From TrEMBL:
SUPFAM superfamilies attached to this UniProt entry: WD40 repeat-like (SSF50978)
Organism field: Nesidiocoris tenuis
Sequence intervals crossing the membrane: none
Protein name: Uncharacterized protein
Pfam families named among the record's database cross-references: WD40
Amino acid sequence: MDPVSGDFAYNYLRNRELGNRPQLGTNDRFMNGLYKSFARCEWWDHFASLKNAAPGGIFNLEFSPDGSLLVAACEKRSILMFDPLSRKLLHSVDNAHYDCVNCVRFLDSRVFATCSDDSTVALWDARNLKTRIRTLYGHSNWVKNIEFSQNDGLLVTSGFDGSIYTWDINSYTENGFLYNRVFHTNGLMRTRLNPDASKMIICTTGGYLILIHNLDLRTLAQDLAGFKPNMYRLMQLSRTTIPVAANFTHLFSKRRKKNRIEFLTDFPDGDDAEVVSSLQVHPQGWCALSRNISNDENSEWTCVHDIQDLEYPTVDDRPSPENSGGEESDTEMGILSEFIKELCFSADGRLICSPFGYGIRLLAFSPECSELSSCVPENGAVRLHQVAINMCHEDIVVSTKFSPRHCLLVSGCLTGRIVWHQPQL
């Protein structure tokens, strides 16, 4: 019997109406059936409205926190705003930047930020897109992603100049916003914060991730001054003491109260990770999701990394060469690996959407689409479970995003087409 039809669906809805506690496994069974039925339901491209210039590739997709707006960052310098439920284009801003728009991040239900290969970050008000609110200058190379720490009121940006900047958007002065470079490393690709901004995760071109526990953005620059992750990683791999790097071993001590460093190198057997190009964090902050290109550039891997604080029995505080907290992984052939492909979690954290050639692939932690907390592998990494494949585009898919409020998924490809996916019951 289909898990979301017939008697099961009736009983599920009836018990929910009555407020009865669901039986063990009922929610998993329902979500499994729902996610397996995801299919393309609508699409948009610029040919649908000849008033709009061709946007080029859809490099990033972002929903507003309440799910009422969808904004696309486009290759040819534009941003597009949609009503995600009616799938209608509400606004388009041509020449929003002077180069490719790479990322969109909502700060609240109406204000969002964009960043670009023109080395700037722009603030916008969704109610009036005729002009930007502010432009943030500071980066010296392509700006690739934006995060926002609600607790600190700080915008966090990172780019291919290797720098991570924080911007105090509540303290505008004659000279612009107050900003600070809090970290720098060669080969930086993406930076993410977990939901409560207590951790920062950084992926690199060196085949490892940097995890900063007990994050304090106000003192990060001071605490990590002079630290060179690539040199420290080289010392770990060579098992030879490099005095300049060894001076920073205290940053890895589990006794540190804030800004403690950990390297994540827990990639599965067969994955000789080199460029870790894409990064996302679980909605509950339980794990990080990465996509990497293998050293031979013939395959791309989707991996899940444990980022929770665990107590390990240790003899001393010297960090081991590698972290062994890996969870799940999956692989595919490397297609146009020069393009960064953005993967995502569903709002409940049960499902992963990963670009897959001319379509998308839905992956889960278990065949039943269980929550991660109920199916953590006991020993080593295991394969993610494929829920569905949907070949729905005419070119390589480079961006995906689940709605935070509705059972809705969107994907974008290099020709500028955006596809909506919903359960077909």
